[in-house]
Amino acid sequence: MDALPRHGLRKLTYPVWPAGQKVAGARALYLTGQERLAKRCAIRRYRTQTGQITDDPAGFAMTVGQIAAFAGPRELFVERRR
Fold it and tell me: What is the DSSP letter of 23?
């Protein structure tokens, strides 16, 4: 038996890719200025994703547009039903 419905809980997912795109059924949670600042700082700490690692020319790095999409004013969540 699934514990979620039994306890009145919902299962929310966080669509990561493609950032900045419309996601069917998504609901927005708007972030405060302080939350956005914390998120931008967290993104910058992931050197492997922001192109600060240079020893692998084929390595993954987020584009400026992707970073901007992830640092936006809202988080999107989608409720998944079973």
Answer: -
| Span between the terminal Cα atoms of the chain, in Å | 12
DSSP tally for the chain: helices H, then strands E: 3, 3
* 27 CB neighbour count, 10 Å cutoff: 12
Residues spanned by the domain of 59:
3-80
Sheet arrangement for strand 26-30: 11-13, 74-80, 26-30
Report the run of H or E that residue 66 belongs to, with start and end. Answer: helix 64-70
pLDDT tens across 38-81, in order?
A: 988 888 887 766 776 677 777 777 777 878 878 889 988 998 87
Number of domains in the chain: 1
